[in-house]
Structure formats: structure tokens, C-alpha cells
Amino acid sequence: MGPRIGPVGVEPQVTDKDTKATMGTEDTCGDKANPESQDSRPSVFHSIKFFVLCHSLLQLAQLMISGYLKSSISTVEKRFGLSSQTSGLLAAFNEVGNTTLIVFVSYFGSRVHRPRMIGYGAILVALAGLLMTLPHFISEPYRYDSTSPVDTPQDSEASLCQPATLAPPPAPSNGSSCSSYTEAKHLALVAIMFMAQTLLGVGSVPIQPFGISYIDDFAHNNNSPLYLGMLFAVTMMGPGMAYGLGGLMLSLYVDINRMPEGGINLTSKDPRWVGAWWLGFLISAGVVALAATPYFFFPRAMPKEKHELHIQRRVFSIVRKSEDSSPEQSPESSKKKEGLAQIAPDLTVIQFIKVFPSVLLRTLRHPIFLLVVLSQVCLSSMAAGMATFLPKFLERQFSITASYANVLIGCLSFPSAIMGIVVGGILVKRLHLGPMRCSVLCLLGALSCLFLSLPLFFMGCPTHQIAGIIHQPGAQPELELLPDCMERCNCPSDDFNPLCDPSARVEYLTPCHAGCTSRVVQEAPGKSQVLYTNCSCVMRGNTVSAGSCESACSHLVLPFMVLIGLSAAMACVTHTPSFMLILRGVKKEDKTLAVGIQFMLLRVLAWMPSPVIHGSAIDTTCVYWAQSCGRRAVCRYYDHDLLRNRFIGIQFFFKTGSLVCFALILAILRKQDKEEGTKVVACHDLQQQLLASGPEKKPEEFRV
């Protein structure tokens, strides 16, 4: 899922130095802006409450546009012929731009006009969203039947079985018919998307840390945690809204703005269907641009809020506790940048770069800190892979549409994760858990998450039979022409127009591979159905319908998602107590920087490589690749058993790693407690001995 919310301000109190600096800026700005006139004519842009509202909306929109690509990743693959490894790398490029500038933004955080920098960053995010839609407008209209010439209707008779004597000379293969211009254009389209993702990460850098530090500087000390809790609660809905928007947009046809004459004969259930993936980026970019407008009118510094809000804050106390525990979509931690910014003003750029590695090494030597970070790296890697490829996995494993897959994820997974964070915060706060009990809670959460994943290995069906495709372990998949019934047909090898024989549950790549010689369109109210007749390769009957065979396990998708949601909730329960282990385990002077290092490592070790790892594993389960200009393009068919075992297996591996780390943390804490207990007993015994021997030695001491 792109930029995420991180823990903020564990100790929101402002130091004397910060107070003086704030008062100094207030006086300076007040002299220039005439405070008396401001008091008589208060501006809405001098209200920290209005800033909190604007920042909540902006972060909501920014997280929505950052997470939208993950909701449409399988559609982008089909549209541009990408492998899962390439699409995973595309999703990870959002983190590359963000990580590159994260330290320097922290350094300059207190030296710039923060609202304007937020506005500039948001405008860059909006432009990146528009750039992401550019490949749709500069590319040719999507042709779902590769054998159809450009000037003829798609799904024409070109894919039917034609006798070799009557068939026209075979067209040149896809690889030889591709010009260098076509291949260069394809590479340019992919490069544009990579550039857009990089700019999206760069634009997201100043939005959260500057906004949170601005709120903490000018809000009342007792109101700051409340405002940050409200900000966190609102923006957490961003990733869920991204999947909801993806579910809506992918139900529309990709070329809705340039539909061919006579329409199309596809439905959203057809494997060749491509939804309007670009429309979601267009909408999200517009929302981000609108939300960025007010930031150019906020002052560099505003008068500090004087009055405390007298409202019941029980609801926000839970959310405030959860500020330490954003879900795995949050390695862009504001605490990190805020902590770095606290030491940055006293250092030059060179000094700042020199001091950072030494503090990093000192912090990494702490065993509790290192193990907590490793456990969170495992959980974040699990979340990154799940957020990126779970929609595609559901589509392939259960034969559901991309739209429905996104709706399921948005309605079940993200609410469960939020609930897990809230429960973790409640348990830590109400039970007053110390480090030992926090580690026990983390261990129980990781263990429950692991057990809930076990049934997922068995919830699915093997791949149905696909005529002509042979997959042998260690051998490259190849297309074998069926005997007898296809001898007289002149079938193109690069066509894909699937049809299904439901009686035998056999799927054919094209009507030609089924030996069909004619095509009939049955018109019905609201939809039309395409039938193929005179199919010599069909076992029972000679009429089959267009489209892939449906999965026999589609009814398992809801139980599967319920287990995924419960597993995500158990994983998120560990986030608050694991964060508290860091705060209570490292030295006081290293707390803020330790949190910053924690989230930098999460981004580098989890959110950047995990999508690529999951995508590569998915590619290894492909049994039939489409070819485009002589290169391997999108995968047409997967081995469902291999796909399920490897995708869930990677998740299981990361969950096991997290469980092992929490177990080691508990063992170390128990050892430390035992050593401290031994020292206390020894000191107590020594004290008792001194008290017992004191009266007897007193006369000797006097004699001496």
C-alpha cells in the first residue's frame, strides 16, 4: 500500500527552548501582521483547528492515491503486458523516491515555510497522479483479440477454425511483426509509470512530518494529542478508500472515453477484461490538488492556541494510544522525521550526515531494539506483499472480478487491521503492560496470526484442465496442438480468446483450438452472449460459450477473506506493544532517533523489496505466458496449487520470523529480570548481614 502514517509525539509537551522559539516567531510575525488587526478580524487560516481539518483531508487523499496502484495492479499488468515481478517493482518505486529524501527533509524541516512546502509536495503528488494516467492517453486503444486487424471488429472470425486450404497465408508471428518503434513505445510507457511512482514518493515526503510538527508547535499542549488522534483516525481510511475506488473504476471498461463502434462483447468476468484503471488516478489527483490549495494561505507561524478543548476524550485516547501503532501501511513515520528534526537545527548538513551513522550503529547494538525491528520488518513484508498482490491472488484463485476483489479487501481487511490496532492500544493502556507483558502480548498475537494462516493452504481448487497446455517441472511450458480435431485448422499461436466446455470443465485458448467454425451472438435484455458452434474438439456437444471456466471453489472466497482479516487483526495487535518495547528499551536520549531508524529500516528492508519478492514468486507459478514482440509478457494461466502454496507460504515464512523474534525478546527480558532479581537478593542479603554484624563490630571499631 505507498506513504503511511507512523507514530507521533509520545511526549507532546513543548520544552522551554521550543516555547521560547515559538513565542519568538509569534512576536516576529505579529509585528509584521499587526496582531491587533488579527484579533479584531480573525482569519480562518490562523486557526490550528482549520489546519487540522485541511491536513486530515490532504493525508486522506494522499494515501488514497498512493494505495490506488495496488488495487489495480493486475489490470495494469494485462493492459501493458507486465510480469508480476515488474509490477511489484513498479509498486516499490513509490518508496524509492520517499526514502531518498527523508533525512534531508528532516534536516530542513524547521528552516522552511512548512505549510507552503506541504502544498508544493501535494501539487507534486497530484502531477504524479496525472503523469500516471498519461500512458492510457498516448497508447492505442486496447485490443483484447490480438488476431483482429485494427480496422475490423474485435472477436471477428479470425480466431475461428479455418481449413488450411481455405485459410489465408499465416500472418507473421508477433515477434517478427513488431517494429523497433513499437517496442520503444512500450518501454516509454512503462518508464513513464516508473517515473510517476518515483515523483509520487518524492511529493509525499514533506506532507506528514511538516503537518504534524506544525500542529504540535501551535496547538495547545493538551490539545495536540487530541488533534493528532483525529488526524490519525481520518487518514487511516485512505487505503481502504483506495481499494473501494479501485472496485468502482475497474467495473468500467478501460476505453470508456473512446469506445469502438458497436461497443464490445466483453463482460467484467472475461479474463481479457481491462477496467478503467487510469480513471482512479485522475480522480485522486484532482482531490489532492483541491486539498493542497489552502496550504498556500497558511502563515509560516501562527499564534499558539491558548484555550484547551473541554470535551470528552475517551474515544480519542484509544486513537492517541494508536499513534504509536499505525498499521503496516505506515513506514513514513512522522516520529522519525520529527525526532531527526529535533537534533538537526543545532548541526550543519555535514555534521548531520556524520553523526547519523554513529547513532545508527549505537542503536542497532541494542538487542531488544534490533529484534523488535526485525519482527516488524517481517510483519511489514507480509503486509506489503498482501496489499500489492492479494487482489490478483483472489482473481486467479477464486475466479472473481477485479472489482469484487477490491471491494472485499476494502471492506474486510482494513477494518480488521484498524480494529487490531485499537485493541492493542486498549490492552497496553488499561492493563498498564510493562516490557515483559508487552512481549508476551506480541508473542500471543504473532502465534494467533500464524495459526489463522494454516487453513489458507487448503482453501482453493487445482487448475481446471486447459486443452493444449502441458507443464512439466523443470521444462518450459509449451503449446501442444491437439490431435485429429485441429489438424485441418490454421490456428494462430499468439491468440487468446478463451472459451469453456462446462460439461467436461475443459478450457480452450481460442475457438480455433476447440475446432469451432462459426460464431453466434445471442442478444438478451441488458447483455449479449457469444456462442461458438460446430466445435469438433468439444467432447459433449458442439456448442460452447465464450469466456473462461469458473472456479469450483468460488464459494470459499468469503471464508478465505474472513481468515485474512482475523490474521491481519492479530498482526496489528502486536504493533502498539512492540513500539512500547522500543520506547522503554532504548536510552532516553536515543528514543526519538531510534523510532526514526526503526521506520527507515522498515521502508528499506520491507516495503521496498517485499512486492518484488512476492511478484517473483507468483511468476514462478505461471504455466502459459503471452508473447509480445518476442518477449515474455503477461501470464495467461497459473498453476493454482503452486500459486496458493507459494503466496501463502511466503506469508507464513514472514509470520514465523516475527514469532521467532518475539520469542527471543521474551527470553532476553526474562534473563534480564532474573539477573536483576539475583542482584536485588544479593544486595538484600548483604544489607541483612551488615545489619546483623553491626552491633558486634561496634566495640572493636571504638577500640581501634
Structure, explained:
The protein is built from 23 helices and ten strands. The protein is of the alpha+beta class. The chain folds into two domains: 522 residues, MFS general substrate transporter like domains (Growth Hormone, Chain: A, Up-down Bundle), CATH 1.20.1250.20; 82 residues, no CATH class. Strands 1-5-4-8-7-6 form a six-stranded mixed β-sheet, with no helix packed on it. Strands 2-3 form a two-stranded antiparallel ribbon. The protein has a two-stranded antiparallel sheet with strand order 9-10. A hairpin with a 2-residue loop joins strand 9 and strand 10. 47% of the residues are buried. The N terminus and C terminus are likely disordered.
Q: How are the SSEs placed, and which strands pair?
A:
Elements lengths: L15 H18 L1 H6 L7 H24 L1 H8 L3 H25 L5 H25 L35 H4 L2 H25 L2 H12 L5 H12 L1 H13 L27 H16 L21 H9 L11 H10 L5 H16 L2 H32 L3 H29 L4 H19 L11 E2 L2 E2 L7 E2 L19 E3 L4 E3 L9 E7 L2 E7 L10 E3 L10 H17 L1 H11 L5 H17 L2 H10 L2 E7 L2 E8 L1 H64 L1
Helix pairs in contact: 3-9, 3-10, 3-11, 3-12, 4-5, 5-8, 5-14, 5-22, 6-8, 6-9, 6-12, 9-14, 10-13, 11-17, 13-17, 14-21, 16-17, 16-20, 16-21, 16-22, 16-23, 17-19, 18-19, 18-20, 18-23, 20-21
